[in-house]
Amino acid sequence: xxxxxxxxxxxxxxxxxxxxxxxxxxKGFFAVYVGxxxxxxxxxxxxxxxxxxxxxxxxxxxxxEFGFDHPTGGLSLPCDEAFFFIVTSQIC
Length: 92
What we know:
46% helix; 3-stranded mixed sheet
């Protein structure tokens, strides 16, 4: 049940991200913000990553750290760029 709650909340964040940045976000992608508070970088992630266990682990960490209120409009991930690249490079 917690997974479904998390899934629907993530879906709402992504929907807000699409709405806020629809002109700069290609279809099939969503924006995530990675890094330190003042040095956050925006990355476009394919929607299919939402089905991958390693990316879902990042989403759970984001839920624990930030809840479902992301002031940037996009999804903030609580990791540095190096870790983000490691996780995403292992997704086929």
